[in-house]
Structure formats: C-alpha cells, structure tokens
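[Automated response] Your request has been received and processed.

Submitted sequence:
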Amino acid sequence: MGIMEILLIAAVALIVIPPERLPEVIAALGKIMRDLRLASNSVMREFSLALEETRAHALDQLEDQREPSHPEEPTDKQAEP
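Generated structure:
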C-alpha cells in the first residue's frame, strides 16, 4: 500500500467514523490485525513442520531405495585357473 492509498483510507475513515470514536476503532483494527498475524504465523509454522516431515520421509525412502538388497556381483568375472 502506498501513501496515497493510506491517505484515502484515512479521509474516508474521518468522514464515516466520528472523531470521538476513532481511537477505539483504530484499537479494534489493531487487535484484529494482531490476531490475524498470529493466526498466519501459526499456519505457516504448521506448514513448515509438515514440509520438513515430508522431506525427511522422502529422503528416508530415497536412502532405502539406494541401499542394495543383496551385495552386487562383480561385473567382469574372470575364470580362475
């Protein structure tokens, strides 16, 4: 949001909301913004944890696939005399 948008919102707020109620409206908006930010952080933290668990699980599966189930046999077999 640029300065012009903020000034426009402030002008509309002064027209719509009486000046004596403006501090309590601003306080309520601040509380709502804080709650939204906390909820957003909580959701982001849950997504990050889920992503890390998924990555760890995928890496474990990749390592399991790379481990041979039986020892590899040498490719050039030479007949012993």
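Summary generated for your ticket: Residues 22-66 form the longest helix (45 residues). Residues 44 and 50 are 10 Å apart (CA to CA).
If you did not submit this request, please reply to this message.
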